[in-house]
Fold these 2 entries.
Entry 1:
Amino acid sequence: MKATIDHIGIAVGDLEASLRFFRDALGLDLDAPEEIASQRVRAHFLQAGETMLELLEATADDSPIAKYVETRGPGLHHVALLVDDIVAALAALKGKGVRLIDESPRTGAHNSLVAFIHPSSAHGVLVELKQKR
Amino acid sequence: MKATIDHIGIAVGDLEASLRFFRDALGLDLDAPEEIASQRVRAHFLQAGETMLELLEATADDSPIAKYVETRGPGLHHVALLVDDIVAALAALKGKGVRLIDESPRTGAHNSLVAFIHPSSAHGVLVELKQKR
């Protein structure tokens, strides 16, 4: 499949501290935040060329991001690949025996379609597939 | 500073297993591997648009990558930002109180100049700066 890297998700424990580095020290441009209610996170995208950085801030104690930060500390969380046809991509991966977290796409940030691949099938990496619409 | 994301480094425990996913299942194009003797790693770059994935395979037991995989398991390791002037970028970051692993650049993959920022200054993320030459 043809894929480009859309963004890198970073699990954040202290949003202001993360912004002091990525926005203030590195000088990357910050977009307006977007709430993703289903994941109980607020996403803060920073522009860095074709690929963005996505700072993920938990909005509830039971958010997957809150749990991740509690267990592993803040840091790199996932990589998102942009594909043309996410349904076809998921079917192709499933046909190759890849374990999927989301069998069918759901709505992600920027009203995109997204689905996650299980890290056990991706050598420890949490991979998101994304299709713009 | 103006920066784009050059690549995402992935610490690999079993190269063949990682290639089965990233090359065979996702279908990303794989470059010829490159040995980085100073880091005791072999880098396998996969093309995915402007930003690449770099599979990092330890070539010695005391390689930083071997230690990383032993402690945290395989997975996302670092993000590399491409800058125009790495010496100026390091000076600017140092002036802002950012803790650097490399005070001055050294030679990285593809004969580039690279320097790492300490994760304690980057909210848990290992950030590499890279300048082509």
Note: Residues 15-25 of chain B form the longest helix (11 residues).
Entry 2:
Amino acid sequence: MDKISDKVINRLTQYHSILGDCIKKGTTTVTSSYMAALLKVDDSQVRKDVSMLNNTGKSRVGYNAFQLKETIEKTLGFKNPKNALIIGAGNLGSALAKYNDFESYGLNVKALFDVDKNKIGSEINTKPVLDIEKLPEFLKKTNIEIAILTVPADFAQDIADYAVECKIKYIWNFSPTVLSVPIDVEVWNENLMGNFLQFSYKISR
Amino acid sequence: MDKISDKVINRLTQYHSILGDCIKKGTTTVTSSYMAALLKVDDSQVRKDVSMLNNTGKSRVGYNAFQLKETIEKTLGFKNPKNALIIGAGNLGSALAKYNDFESYGLNVKALFDVDKNKIGSEINTKPVLDIEKLPEFLKKTNIEIAILTVPADFAQDIADYAVECKIKYIWNFSPTVLSVPIDVEVWNENLMGNFLQFSYKISR
């Protein structure tokens, strides 16, 4: 398949989200017109986008939701692999390092970094745990785009500053604090508290 | 006040986090532009969000940090605590059990459950790790509303069925799979893959 344009990638991620929601509701077949209506695009646009993918699960009544979702995941994952490292080899960092699904989405965790001498030198899911002091050296050798922060909240800002100094441009922040970073650095906050509160708010009504 | 959207809830929890950090540092007044800059959103967005709340502590120089923090807590119902248990005492389950912030947000994790005999009988952050077979008995004694699922994807459906049998009504699912549950059971999927896809999409541009 040829290069996918940003606009198409944008729509694919939205189809992906809709398919996930449909599957959640127990719907196994989804039509192009259903997705088109939700995204306020033309039906033919959805069909054109999907026809570019190597998707097989199409019947007269619509797309197989599971297959199309998987096709989109594969398409996006294989097209844009990104290297990442995890800072903080505690429980959460270890859990993410063991999350093999990330790779099929194009997120390759190359190493973990920590300050704990007992952890440094070990491996988690075949990924080495390295001394945080070795971060600049490691980044010179390896093309890393994303730092995944799983350190305690009190250390998160210092570690983020350090990562930014080491030329990290994207931070996926799992620490429960809001980071202050330069304008050219992107932070994606994985706000578990916020997610819980959305859930909590929903179920208390 | 009308129903609050997920996006607003998410921002409110981030304002809450910023306010907490400010108070820790001894700052008592916080401006909308300060919070807006940290979250890289527009100033007017912050003012609009806050104006929806029944918040009183606003002066010409900014919001009273204590009052706004408390207003957010009241709005989102942190003061109506909910009891939860974690099923799966692996890395992710342990990380969540150690997440002390949950308690200040009204989520009290009472115990963890696992099948691993090496884990059963231990404690994680003062919370006992119990045999999954003891779940029905435990639920009879303790008022638990939420089961947090952190088991591998392959076991998630069986464990969810079991939790539902044990009268659990709310499941916060961290397993990367879509669960099928009866209509009266609410599942909140913590979709890390989907979150990554959005981030990945954003930074690919």
Note: Chain B has two domains: 6-76, 82-194.
